[in-house]
Amino acid sequence: MNGTNGMAAEGEPPVFGKLRKVLGERIMIIDGAMGTEVQRLRLEEEDFRGERFKTTGKLLKGNNDILVLSQPDHVKDIHRRYLEAGADIIETNTFSGTTIAQADYGLESVVYELNKAAAQLAKKAVEEFMAANPGTNERFVAGAVGPTNRTASISPEVEKPDFRNTSFQELVTAYEEQVRALLEGGVDLLLVETVFDTLNCKAALFAIENVFESQPRVPVMISGTVVDKSGRTLSGQTTEAFYTSTCHGRPFSMGLNCALGAEDMRPFLAEMSRIAECYVTAYPNAGLPNAMGGYDQGPATMAGHMKSFAEDGLVNMVGGCCGTTPDHIKAIREAVDGISPRAIPSRPEMLRLSGMEPLHFSTELNFCNVGERCNVSGSRRFSRLITTGKFEEAVAVARLQVENGAQVLDINVDEAMIDGVATMRKFLRFIAGEPDIARVPIMVDSSKFKVIVEGLENCQGRCIANSISLKEGEEEFLRQARTLRKYGAAVVVMAFDEEGQAATKERKVEICERALDLLVNKAGFKPYEVIFDTNILTIGTLIEEHNEYGLNFIEAVRTLKQRHPQCHFNGGVSNLSFAFRGMDHLREAMHSAFLYHAIRAGLSMGIVNAGQITIYDDIDAALLKLVEDLIFNRSPDSTERLLQYAQENVASKGAEKEVEDWRTKSVQERLTYALVKGINTYVIDDTEEARLQCDRPLHVIEGPLMKGMNVVGDLFGAGKMFLPQVIKSARVMKQAVGHLIPFMEAERVAAGGVSSERQFAGTVLMATVKGDVHDIGKNIVGVVLGCNNYRVIDLKVMVPVDKIIEVAKKEKVDVIGLSGLITPSLDEMVFNAREFERLGMKIPVLIGGATTSRIHTAVKIAPQYSAPVIHVLDASRSVGVVQALMDKDEEYLEDVREQYEELRDDYMASLTERRFLTLEKAAKKKLAVEWGRAGRNVVSAPTFLGTKTFDNFPLESLVDYIDWIPFFATWQLRGRYPNRRFPQIFKDERVGAEARKLYDDAQGMLRDILKKKLLQARGVIGFWPAASTGEDIELYADERRDATAATLFCLRQQEEKETKSPYLSLADFVAPRDAPTKDHVGMFAVGVFGADEQCQEFEKVHDDYRAIMMKALADRLAEAFAELMHERVRKQWWGYSAEEKLDCEDLLKVKYRGIRPAPGYPSQPDHTEKSTMWQIMKVRETVGIELTDSLAMLPAASVSGIYLANEEAEYFSVGKLDRDQVVDYAKRKGWTVEEAEKHLHHSLGYDI
User: Fold this and answer.
1) H or E segment at 805?
2) b/e per residue 580-616 (b: at least 16 CB within 10 A)
3) What's the pLDDT at 662?
4) Which of 113, 460, 1232, 1237 is most buried, most CB within 10 Å of its CB?
């Protein structure tokens, strides 16, 4: 590998030796977070500006880097405190010190000055510290080079996968300016840190090498960021792939920082420590960020984790990132003091490449398949797709190559009629967003060097450049080789020189050895980074001089491999058989036989169609002899004899209908396959066959069917099956059981009423609590439990506690599951728990639903009931929890009790730590709106007052407004960045395939709904003259505004803020009575009817999958209805944004003017406000949407809210409320304080 093992190099500056000496004796300490200390200063806009930037146009608050010019004393003081805490290395305050990052502030022109000043400031701090502390260890300054705020590997616009908001060369230019300034300012080393995109890092390393060409090298440290517990960077690379992609930069150290706390970073740091042939650094965050974005891990705790890193030999340098302070650094220094530093490992020398994942050319690899079909010259389909601009379809060609076994992907777009540079760039950017393709390394293949360079500038991994040659002489050969070396690429060398292409063995060997000498001794390559292509030329052409081409290639490889065993050998295998185009069976045999012998001679990789290689031993013996006679030129008539064989044996054969292989297996295997795949086509026949083989029908359930469901459960538990698949499996299972029930009943009758019921793992009662009508999540949990042999009793929705208790006792249930979506359901759950306790019940309770949480369960529900009460996050966790409860796992239950006790303690502590403004003070800091002044916040009047109803609204018009991401979340399918959105989720390597199947099923049901009119949409909207009065909004009967029709009561933020942001209330967004603007407020309630009736039909045939699908689609259509109505309100019925032109994606991103908040949600958490809306719009009478006792809407697929048009209106969360506001709110609503506290229970900032 191209790292450094710490040995001194000739001509190095003294800093290398100084650092190596210290690192040989002890672990060095890096400083902590600059940003955390800056935040503690609570600087305002004027502080960031200082005198220097007083008149700068853009806001500068938050631009920490500029403080080196506007507030240098503050920055130097932070440096001093870290030095006093024990830091050996302090970083310059230049994390965002590039023209790219500073463009956000309009300060590109000061970047060079900023970086130079930052370096000088840090050096000055070191000098002053050393002078004040004579005899102390020498301290060093690292020039901090951050990742910028752009990414070269990921598109910021999901609908344009090939778009980038920066380029490799733009990054190089920006980094080069920063690095030159830092070095001029006197930094001792460079730190390329917080790397979330490896391509950005490679650009930084390229820029650094450019600088080092004209001045002495300094140590370069590289630190990546693993963004989550998957162990990958934001751009998708594993730790080892990241190291492999960047080690060509000769790093002095490699490591990890930011994103994770020390505990979560450990496994990935251990991997870096294992592989890095240089020093290793770790400077994690102070734990994970809390709900407010801060960091809670104290110095002692963090130091303990860092000590374990040191004791286990993982690190050479340690420090801190976000949330760390001088106190953290002091504690870390003390913790690692006296512990020996990590020993640098020595790894076997070999070629190592990377895509998102690494590829090692070890002896175990034997041969590397390089996929050939992404070549416009080698694949007619790929060529057609590329030349017609169908890049998304061309991606499928690449995917198929990888699926068929390609370990490296060759990309070649050399074609006279297309722009090779632009095409290479675009295609590589397309496949960069496809993890199943981008995981493998890329071979950038072109006869044009500028196309190769463009390819390397668009690949984050370590690539192969294919190819260069000596045909233009040694000077050009070395220029190209040195350029490729700076990109970190391995290189393919063609057997060409100034005299032309080598055809004989002797010429091939001569050219390759000459090239190797130049690459190793003059261009800095290692022998194992050199790949020779000694030219596979076409044989069987009936031209005599071509007869030896196959043999010459094999023998040249054999000779070179014996002389230079570390080098690699490659070839385009398809070239061999071009004379036999159209005879695919024959060509496959030629390729396989040729590879068999070439690999034995030393061929280590080949550009082949991975899906069209047959096994050597499977080649027909007669054909094999003919093929090998041709390859080795054993007979002058080899070509004729092979052609004769082809004419006689390789005629086109009609396609035979393939019998489904799984249908030929045993009944147990067929049932298991059907259950896993969710195929119900044959389940009745197979179940009947199993029944006839078993003594009793019950045995079919307990035997073949449960064995199959156990496989389903294991796959789901291991994350290898997803929720939609499990529900399809349950559908198959229920249909099989449904077939057996009549036989079991007949058996029971024949036995005189003796039970023939199956044995379940346990019985679980499930219910959506009283007042709540939402049950999709509950139904999903029920299906998952049923798949794991639990008997599930589903009491459906709006279930009062006495019904739950009655059925629980009668059915002797083992576990009760309570579900709810709306916040009043949380209180109902508390009431249920109290009732269970009052009656002396001991049945464990599971809590689930969208508004439930661990903290609420621990603080409010669990203390009411002495039996276990456990919050279950989603369906995938339910089985494990129920199993633990059934097993009476005391260790598990004790762990839950301890966790909940800690949560309660933390909650009570947070109540004492919260600081509130009084309502009076908060109101004085409300949003300041310039009503009607200078044309601002002037809103036209609606086109009508009162209400307008919509009956049987056309569902077809709603389809384009559906937001699909919540639909996938319902089924617990969540893509990972950059595939979180729709339709990018289909590209997600983990859930994409299943998301696509689910979506296709949903589209099928949606077509059914529309065609058969299975659902109906109804709604009502209305507008009233309105004005804010203090904390509330008054609605008036007409424009005279002298008669109040209703009052909407509002709540204001009270929790103290660290910024100067206003303390918001919805009333702020409505003009007061005395404003020059006369304002209005709108309301709406929309619903989709009929889902429950459709679900009942599905449940009759045991089809949970379609039942859940129907409810999920009804929910999505209701939300789409709300989205469409709001758009028409803005453009038509109110008309304040008549010129709005937004697509659905923009609508879902809320890019329009105005908001539609709803009671019961963060900006007004009081559900009772719905009652006012229902009264003034007569919702129940005109539309049929009802409110339950807990103010849930029925049907469940309903949405309601109010319309506010103010251009400054925004969604916000009221947060916690202090008692003075609750008292005031109760008085305004005509409630007692106790009533107000009941309805606002979950928003109280104090305990009651």
Assistant:
1) helix 801-810
2) beebebbbbbbbbbbbbbbbebbbbbbbbbbebbeee
3) 82
4) 460
CA distance 404 to 382: 16
Note the pLDDT of residue 1: 37
**Mean residue pLDDT across the chain:** 88
pLDDT of residue 915 exceeding 90, the answer is no
Contact between 832 and 801 (Cβ < 8 Å): yes
Question: Rounded to whole angstroms, how far apart are CA atoms 1095 and 1079?
Answer: 44
Q: 3-state secondary structure string, 823-861?
A: CHHHHHHHHHHHHHHHCCCCCCEEEECCCCCHHHHHHHH
| Alpha-carbon span 622 to 645, nearest angstrom | 9
Q: Which helix (H) or strand (E) holds 353?
A: strand 352-354
In order, the DSSP letters of 222-263 are: EEE---STT-B-TTS-BHHHHHHHHGGG--SEEEEEEEEEHH
Q: Are 849 and 820 in contact (CB under 8 A)?
A: yes
Q: Smallest Cα–Cα separation from 147: which of 411, 460, 454?
A: 460
How many Cβ atoms from other residues are within 10 Å of residue 157's Cβ?
A: 11
Question: 311 near 339, Cβ under 8 Å?
Answer: yes
Structure tokens at 534: 């000694």
Q: How far apart are CA 873 and CA 881, in angstroms?
A: 11
CA–CA separation, 975 vs 981, rounded Å? 7
The string of DSSP letters for 1165-1212 reads --TTHHHHHHHHHTHHHHT--EE-TT--EESSSEEEEEEB--TT----
State whether residue 955 is helix, strand or coil: helix
Cα separation values, 912 from 304, 406, 905, 1216, 1246, Å: 28, 60, 11, 13, 8
pTM here?
A: 0.58
| Number of alpha helices (DSSP H) and beta strands (DSSP E) in the chain | 45, 33
Identify which of 358, 267, 250 has the alpha carbon closest to the alpha carbon of residue 314.
267
Give the type of residue at 1141: K
Per DSSP, 464 falls in state E
Residues belonging to the active site: 772, 774, 825
Going by the DSSP 8-state scheme, the letter that residue 1153 receives in this structure is: S
Q: What is the pLDDT of residue 292?
A: 56
- Residues 253, 259, 263, 265, CA torsion sign: negative
User: How far is CA 542 from each of CA 276, 514, 539, rounded to the nearest angstrom?
Assistant: 54, 33, 8
Residue 661 Cα distances to 98, 404, 664, 665, 673, angstroms: 60, 20, 6, 8, 11
CB-side neighbour CA atoms (13 Å) of 368? 25
Q: Are 469 and 475 in contact (CB under 8 A)?
A: no
Q: Which amino acid is at 477?
A: F
Structure tokens given for 1248:
């009651």
Read off the pLDDT of residues 38-53 as tens digits, 9 standing for 90 and up.
988 989 999 999 999 9
Q: How far apart are CA 195 and CA 239, in angstroms?
A: 11
C-alpha 867/C-alpha 883 separation (Å) is: 16
CA 533 to chain centre: 39
Region class of 473: left (phi > 0), else alpha (psi between -120 and 50), else beta: left
Phi first, then psi, for residue 170 (nearest 5°) are -65, -40
